[in-house]
């Protein structure tokens, strides 16, 4: 096995880093999160037209670049370095794979080329308190109880002569306030035969209300989505088994999220090391003190370990056949990366002193990303505990 990146993968990373360095500095990030969309549409257009980022992991016959999860994870690592607010995670990582896997030929032909070109953004609306539960990263429910059950809670789907109507509410939808189309998980079939299906809802559909929520991490816009007898289109057919597809998506999404967190951790560590070489105490840079060196070295080790885990998770997710022990690689990599980001951001705040948590400095943005990501995709101990249960670690140890 050759673990080195190909020339094409290196080109993707280098070109994207150069573009983001020019177009997505700290001031641009602050300006973008204050817009109604929560991101810079001009930057998103550039990412789509110049680099084909939204369609990176989509097949060529659907308008994409025909790359794998590995290339998408590398792109997420670069966007994570600058905390670029964009629909990439919601559209390309969470929604497009489900459209590709479960959609009909007509749906794929209608939606995927527009997603690949950047002309269409999408968001995954999953009821319940934690997206990672639906993606089988922090738990597994074979009946989809995370979406609400029976006639109460979650989102309910009702078949009519003209199609489907949805009724319910989803509290946390990443980029849900600005997405052109929503992919909504809903219960159908009543209490006794209830099952989870996925539905496409247009952003301008009647009965749909979307309100952007105040979030700890402003670079990850979230919305509350309300559906009141909203017309929807069933994704695929009603015979599609949605829950295994969501679990498979969880592995690829975890690899991309891990790479994104690694990029953010590496960048805040770089900024901290740079500042430690400039700030002086007792007539010498604080970076020359052994205690500071040890703290930064510990963070460096964590970041490098997390990077290796993220790359391995991306590689395993790209394989068509995987060993049993590889099924938990994504969750473990995400746990490692979130912990590394938390440590890097915390040390960044401490070693930057009083300026580290001010609006004028960018380090506080990384601290909020670390805290916000653990709330959205963690916590770390639950990711690890579920991976251990899935791999029968404790049963093996007890034999």
TrEMBL record:
Protein biosynthesis among keywords: no
Keyword ATP-binding appears in the UniProt entry: no
Domain Acyl-CoA dehydrogenase/oxidase N-terminal: 6-118
Keywords from the UniProt entry: FAD, Flavoprotein, Oxidoreductase
Cofactor: FAD
Residue ranges of domain Acyl-CoA dehydrogenase/oxidase C-terminal in the record: 255-387
InterPro entries cross-referenced by the UniProt entry: Acyl-CoA_Oxase/DH_mid-dom_sf, AcylCo_DH-like_C, AcylCo_DH/oxidase_C, AcylCoA_DH/ox_N, AcylCoA_DH/ox_N_sf, AcylCoA_DH/oxidase_NM_dom_sf
Domain of life: Bacteria
SUPFAM superfamilies linked to this entry: Acyl-CoA dehydrogenase C-terminal domain-like, Acyl-CoA dehydrogenase NM domain-like
Family: Belongs to the acyl-CoA dehydrogenase family.
The name this protein goes by in its record: Acyl-CoA dehydrogenase family protein
């Amino acid at each position: 096995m050759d673990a080195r990146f190909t020339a094409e993968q290196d080109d993707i990373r280098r070109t994207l880093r150069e573009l983001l360095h020019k177009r997505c500095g700290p001031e641009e990030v602050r300006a973008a999160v204050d817009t109604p969309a929560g991101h810079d549409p001009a930057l998103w257009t550039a990412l789509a037209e110049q680099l084909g980022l939204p369609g990176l992991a989509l097949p060529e016959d659907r308008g994409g670049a025909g790359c794998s999860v590995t290339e998408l994870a590398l792109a997420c690592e670069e966007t994570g370095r600058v905390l670029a607010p964009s629909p990439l995670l919601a559209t390309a990582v969470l929604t497009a794979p489900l459209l590709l896997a479960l959609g009909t030929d007509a749906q794929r032909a209608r939606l995927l080329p527009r997603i690949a070109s950047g002309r269409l953004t999408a968001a995954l609306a999953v009821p319940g308190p934690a997206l990672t539960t639906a993606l089988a990263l922090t738990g597994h429910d074979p009946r989809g109880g995370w979406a609400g059950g029976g006639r109460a809670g979650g989102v309910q789907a009702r078949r009519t002569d003209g199609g489907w109507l949805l009724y319910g509410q989803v509290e946390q939808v990443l980029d849900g306030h600005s997405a052109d189309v929503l992919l909504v998980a809903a219960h159908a079939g009543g209490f006794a035969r209830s099952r989870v299906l996925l539905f496409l809802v247009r952003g301008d559909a009647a009965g749909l209300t979307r309100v952007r929520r105040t979030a700890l991490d402003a670079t990850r816009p979230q919305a509350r989505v309300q559906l009141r007898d909203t017309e929807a289109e069933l994704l695929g057919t009603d015979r599609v088994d949605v829950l295994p597809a969501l679990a498979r998506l969880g592995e690829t999404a975890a690899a991309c999220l891990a790479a994104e967190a690694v990029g953010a951790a590496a960048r805040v560590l770089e900024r901290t090391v740079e500042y430690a070489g400039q700030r002086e105490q007792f007539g010498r840079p604080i970076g020359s003190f052994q205690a500071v060196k040890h703290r930064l070295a510990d963070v460096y080790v964590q970041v490098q370990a997390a990077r290796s885990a993220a790359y391995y998770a991306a590689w395993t997710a790209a394989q068509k056949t995987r060993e049993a022990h590889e099924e938990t690689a994504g969750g473990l990599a995400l746990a490692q990366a979130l912990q590394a980001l938390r440590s890097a951001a915390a040390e960044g705040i401490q070693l930057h002193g009083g300026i580290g948590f001010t609006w004028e400095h960018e380090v506080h943005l990384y601290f909020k990303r670390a805290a916000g990501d653990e709330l959205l995709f963690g916590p770390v101990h639950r990711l690890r505990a579920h991976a251990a249960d899935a791999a029968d670690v404790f049963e093996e140890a007890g034999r």
